Request: fold
Amino acid sequence: MYLRYLIIGVFLLLTSATYPCSCEWGGNFIVSTKNSPLVVKVKVIETLYHFEDGKTISDKNEWEEYVLLKEQEYYLSIKVEVIQKLKGFEERKTFEIYGSNGFDCRESVGQFEPGKTYIFALHPSSNSEYNAPNEDEDDYWIWGCSEHWLTYDLESDEITGYIFGKKRKKLKTIPLDRFIKKLR
Reply:
């Protein structure tokens, strides 16, 4: 009888630890960035694949071969170049932003395309409960339970996203300078 309860207890512990993140929408970009220590306009340089054994790969073909060979979980990060700091302090011109494995309430970074420019509200990895392979305290992550990123159009100097307003589903496009005034 004791063994039966032990097995059930272990099963419950294991299954409760594997539930994906569950959170409610925390607000538009202006509201949600109040808790973000760094807001930057960045250009995505490359996507990086990090494996449990510590290997990092940037080439997609090499990544596919390694996944088949090693059968390990992998995690994504993006390397970004800072174009403009809008809030906070960061001296480096480039750094990495780590994404989600689906269980940690982070934004997936696989959607951000190399060569494109975005506005990100970031959190330092040093204050994260979860860290991916190769992620260290000098890296960043994006909160996935509210609006923490916007797209930037270089030609029009405008941003698009859920910038302000009470409804999440209301995409807006505004000039970057107007956004900066609202951010402060």
Residues 2-16 form the longest helix (15 residues).
